[in-house]
Amino acid sequence: MTELIPNLLSETSGYLANNTPDFHTLYSIWSGADNLLGGGKFGPQSAADAVAAVKTAIEDLEAAGVRHLLIFNMPRMGDTPDAQSDGPLSIAAANIFADAYNADLTIALAELRADPCSSPGFTMSIFTRSWCW
Fold first, then answer.
1. I need a surface site. Which of 21, 54, 64, 72 has the fewest CB within 10 A?
2. In this structure, are residues 122 and 133 in contact, taking their beta carbons and an 8 Å threshold?
């Protein structure tokens, strides 16, 4: 994965290098929107890479003692000014890739939760405005 911008993994490693997580604290991850713009364009591989980064960050945080996580999914990226300014095809593509990210994230979180040693987590759906355990 090419890092074009400061990203979740560098932020997570920087936090863990300088802090000891408190297992009573609720930590949140809302990441991926900038990562969907790999090379300045929306793309399916960018969605998969962004989800992989979230999964790795969760694993790293849990390994350091984090026990409570709130994970946000992707909003409707077609509603952003950038997608809107590029017209209907860009709007549709942005929403398709946000959907792909959200679907991949749901699978990744289910895989993590299948591990009995993983932390309980909450997911907030920004795309559909709902939440679940």
1. 64
2. yes
- Which contacts qualify for 44-51: CB closer than 8 Å, 24 or more apart? 44/97, 44/100, 46/97, 47/97, 47/98, 47/100, 47/101, 47/104, 48/100, 48/104, 49/1, 50/101, 51/101, 51/104, 51/105, 51/108
Output the CA–CA distances (angstroms, integers) from residue 66 to 103, 112, 124, in the order listed.
24, 14, 18
Strand boundaries in the chain, DSSP class E:
26-29, 68-72, 121-125, 130-132
* pTM of the entire predicted model: 0.81
Name residue 29's beta-bridge partners. Answer: 71
Q: What is the pLDDT of residue 133?
A: 43
SS3 21: coil
Contact predicate 59/12, CB 8 Å: no
Please, are residues 66 and 22 in contact by the beta-carbon 8 Å criterion? no
Low-confidence ranges of the chain (pLDDT < 50): 1, 3-4, 130-133
